[in-house]
Amino acid sequence: MLANNWSSKNKTMRIVIIGNGMVGYKFCEKLVGKTAQGFAITVFGEEMRPAYDRVHLSDYFAGKSAQDLLLAPAEWYKDNHITFYPGDPVRSIDRECKTVYSHNGITAAYDYLILATGSAAFVPPIPGTEKEGVFLYRTIEDLELMTAWAKRAKKGAVIGGGLLGLEAAKAMLDLGITDTQVIEFAPRLMPRQIDSAGSEILQNKLQRLGLQIHTSTNTTEIIGEQSIRAMRFADGTELDVDMLVISAGIKPRDELAKACGLDVGPRGGIVVNDLLQTSDRAIFAIGECALHNEMIYGLVAPGYEMADVVAANLTGGSKTFTGFDMSTKLKLIGVDVASFGDPFLQTRETRTVVFEDRHKGIYKRINVSEDGKYLLGGILVGEASAYNMLLQTCKNKVVLPPNPEDLILGARGGESDSGAGMTGLPDEAMICSCENVSKGDICNAVNDGCETVDAIKKCTKAGTGCGGCVPMLKDLMVHTMKSQGKYIRNVLCEHFDYARQELFDLVKVKELKSFDAVLDTLGHGDGCEICKPAIASILASLWNEMILKKGNDVAQDSNDRYLANIQKGGTYSVVPRIPGGEITPEKLIVIGQIAQKYNLYTKITGGQRIDMFGAHVNDLPQIWEELIAAGFESGHAYGKALRTVKSCVGSTWCRFGLHDSVSFAIRVEERYRGLRAPHKIKSAVSGCIRECAEAQSKDFGIIASEKGWNLYVCGNGGSKPQHALLLAQDLDDETCIRYIDRFLMFYIKTADPLARTATWLNKMEGGIDYLRNVVVNDSLGLAENLEREMQSLVDNYTCEWKEVVENPELRKRFNHFVNAPEEKDPTVTFEQLREQKKAREWK
Amino acid sequence: MSNTLIANMTWFAACKISDVPRNGGVCVKYKDEQIALYYFARREEWYATQNLCPHRQQMVLSRGMIGSQTGEPKVACPFHKKTFSLVDGHCMNDDECESIKTFPVKVENNIVFIGVEEDDEYTVNK
Ligand code: SRM
Ligand SMILES: Cc1cc2nc3c(=O)[nH]c(=O)nc-3n(C[C@H](O)[C@H](O)[C@H](O)COP(=O)(O)OP(=O)(O)OC[C@H]3O[C@@H](n4cnc5c(N)ncnc54)[C@H](O)[C@@H]3O)c2cc1C
Ligand code: SF4
Ligand code: FES
């Protein structure tokens, strides 16, 4: 709109930009993008380098070079016909002649002038700030100076406990100054973003990271000869430091504007209207130097928006700047902190919901409108994975679910919830505020073939600013691809167009009992190594029939087919069940004798039992015959089935034991032995809260309490360890068993193939609360069924090794050579290690 | 059930049909060799390959699961699930992995015969 009447009069419009920071650069980019012709653009920059990513300045300490941080290389300006004077600050502006004068003597006339001079670190008026060893934290040069000095420094301090101060404190730690103190004038950390309850939690967490925090502390003097030696505070105390970073806020760079008579605010900042015009219509101010509606925006996203508004207006468009959300997420420090919308809102018309876990250091607060419909703002400390989702819900006025507290309750909500919530957002929802990219833009990009986050970043620029929206990009991508029917359809494999849960139900309803029957009825083709074991597991979970019968043997994974784990060299391991880890001397002797007789390597396992390795496939039936005769049964170490129920010694011997954990572990193990599931299941019972059986790392774990048993579920060790969560407390034996019945049966029926209980729960909408509702409160009305189904599996149990041993047809399958049943595999050889054997190393 | 006859092809009797599990495999000893024999009962087809998995030199392919991928019959090694075509022996999920040798099979009077070349260089105990 500004430009329309312009272009009729003149040929080229001369635009001069003072300042080549993040916003000044963005303005160039927007202008170049809009129309290449008709502009003569001149840029003056005070810093020696072209604009760089100040938001990620601290990455410099993580190994990024100044070059990596550049937003565009120097050639970019040339290629786009921008006259660029780096390292040449503008000295004065002559508004009458519409001309600027630079330090190096360059004179440039303008039709429109853009002030993008940003801000400088605010330095409080404390005597001594000029001393050596005192730094600011704003430019690459600042960081270079800090790095050099830090080599000699031992005791560091940061003035300022806000967003930037904490980032600087982290930088000090990264520089190797482990003794770093944060000095904050206000009574709490991050006073502008979070409330005092949140600050307290944050402070505790940071102290655990090794930062010492002093709030309500007023620095009065910086002591030292030439360089800093100590700080003195208002209460008269002193603190020895040899390196100090001042990061106490920002001060808009309005000095040029002031000098040429433009209006500036009483506390700094160049006054602008909704078009970002200063009191001189031909001069605009954008970014951190601009004071809009009495507000300085110390964030990059509003600055980018300002750049966009001015660029649009100069190229014939019409846009206004009407304020911007100040939501932020603290990065880098090792503690999640975020605030969004109006974090402090507290009126009669709003409801505030707070969740606090001091032990874990989590604080979450949301402010909801009186009618419970809209999210107005909130604070997250300690766990902020829901930040993006909440921010979008707040910004886009998405109507909340009936229980808004669900948004912050449930310790594991995060990731999975955000995916589910994406659907609720309108297409206009701004996903990347830095680059102004909406949900619609991203979905379109995915539809146009951008099927990786990198591709989306490349073609929409989303996620290239502060990077906070990257997890949402991924969710959106997956969601969009899913809705196109791409990739994500959770079907088993090319032979079955169903997911495991669907198959489970179908196989049950149709009473199918063999792999072939399932394939004939529900699938097509011949099956493969993916669907075969998955179906075999479903059949075993449903009917608990001997897994090697009805032709199902060939559908088992090799380990299930031979009822033993195959090991290097083609031999097998033998693991008899030792429930609860309890074993008599007589049985120990039998294991020893058998191992000796068949030349097996023996080892105590991590699951409190004994493994014998190196058995020839031919020997397996004979070994088991002898084990069974001595009263052993299969340990199912090979199956996706119940493994061990570990126990601690408990109240029968231990002076702390509250109940008899061994007896209960044995009862549990004998109840669920042989139970086939989507993945293996492990359990443990501890006799008191000292937890020697590690029950909280199990799929279900039981810990004695004063009044009964506490039941934990969905934990595991392995490559992605996860602690189990408390499902119910103070249960008597029978109730505990009933809850486990329901829990296990529900898992077996609904989990994906090869998903452990933790993975299953992580994907469950509603998380542990939902699961508790199903298992404890019977919210689905399934409890009775689940218990009955479990009971019938329990009743159906037989030891599969016993059946093999007694059945000549099945035994035959353990011969190595079909045409030479007596002969063992001659290629099997062992090596010697200590006093036992080991498998020969493979190539 | 290949009928292509190669010059010095010898058919040796491996076992009876009933010795081999339907849709599964067994290992057959031939001189010093180990041959995996598969009864693809769903398609009424027989295949034979070397028993040695080339990936880690393990003598186990007869214990693998058989199945198909877009119609092509295959066997999956129990160790790391490399899959091999039963038709020409190429590895179907890893281009880097060596192929395996295949043998023709025929069935007469309930006896399964595997065809081997007399001057076959192939040995398994190298
Ligand atoms: C023998 C043993 C190691 C030992 O010498 O102590 C062992 C050995 C094997 N583990 Fe394990 N695990 C053994 C305890 C564990 C434990 C500790 C425990 O149970 O308290 C863990 C972590 C706890 C957990 O599972 O949550 C463990 C986590 C795994 C995993 C990772 C599971 C996961 O969800 O990430 C695998 C891989 C898998 O199952 O897919 C695995 C797989 C295996 C396999 C089956 C790998 C294989 O296919 O050959 C190994 C077979 C050995 C054999 O033939 O018996 N093993 N494994 C332990 C047997 C316990 C027993 O008595 O049955
Ligand atoms: C350590 C750190 C972390 C930050 N983290 C975040 C974050 O996580 N999220 C977020 O949104 N924001 C963050 N910010 C703030 C963000 O960097 C700023 O909002 C953004 O850089 C503002 O851009 P700007 O162009 O307005 O100012 P600047 O980037 O400061 O650029 C102004 C430029 O103008 C130059 N200049 C000044 N006067 C003259 C003159 N007379 N002649 C020529 N050139 C001149 C200056 O030298 C400077 O190069 C962070 C800032 C810092 C320092
Ligand atoms: S940790 Fe790995 S190597 Fe060790 S037993 Fe378990 S699976 Fe085998
Ligand atoms: S040994 Fe066969 S796949 Fe690795």
Explained architecture:
The complex is a heterodimer of chains A (843) and B (126). With 843 residues, chain A is of the alpha/beta class. Chain A folds into 7 domains: 2-120 and 252-314, FAD/NAD(P)-binding domain, CATH 3.50.50.60; 134-248, FAD/NAD(P)-binding domain (3-Layer(bba) Sandwich); 328-420, FAD/NAD-linked reductase, C-terminal dimerisation domain (Enolase-like, domain 1), CATH 3.30.390; 430-483, BFD-like [2Fe-2S]-binding domain (Arc Repressor Mutant, subunit A, Orthogonal Bundle); 500-556, no CATH class; 557-639 and 813-843, 2-Layer Sandwich (Alpha-Beta Plaits); 642-795, Sulfite Reductase Hemoprotein, domain 1 (2-Layer Sandwich). Helix content of chain A is 31%, strand content 20%. Chain A is built from 27 helices and 38 strands. In chain A, the strands form 11 sheets. A 5-stranded parallel β-sheet of chain A has the order 3-2-1-7-19. Chain A has a 5-stranded parallel β-sheet with strand order 9-16-10-11-12. In chain A, α6 (163-174) links the parallel β10 (155-159) and β11. The longest helix of chain A is centred in the last third of the chain and has 18 residues, at 733-750. The model of chain A is unreliable at 410-420 (pLDDT under 50). Chain B is mainly beta. Chain B has one domain: Rieske Iron-sulfur Protein (3-layer Sandwich), CATH 2.102.10.10. Chain B is 0% helix and 47% strand. Chain B contains no helices and 12 strands. Chain B has strands spanning 9-16, 24-30, 33-40, 45-50, 52-53, 58-59, 65-69, 72-76, 83-85, 102-103, 105-108, 111-117. A 4-stranded antiparallel β-sheet of chain B has the order 2-3-4-10, with no helix packed on it. Chain B has a 3-stranded antiparallel β-sheet with strand order 1-12-11, with no helix packed on it. A 3-stranded antiparallel β-sheet of chain B has the order 7-8-9, with no helix packed on it. The termini of chain B are far apart. The relative contact order of chain B is 0.27. Mean pLDDT of chain B is 87; it is low at 1-5 and 121-126. The chains are: A alpha/beta (843), B mainly beta (126). The interface between A and B is large, with 38 and 40 residues. Bound molecules: siroheme, flavin-adenine dinucleotide, iron/sulfur cluster and FE2/S2 (inorganic) cluster. Residues 53, 55-56, 58, 77, 79-80, 82 of chain B line the site of FE2/S2 (inorganic) cluster.
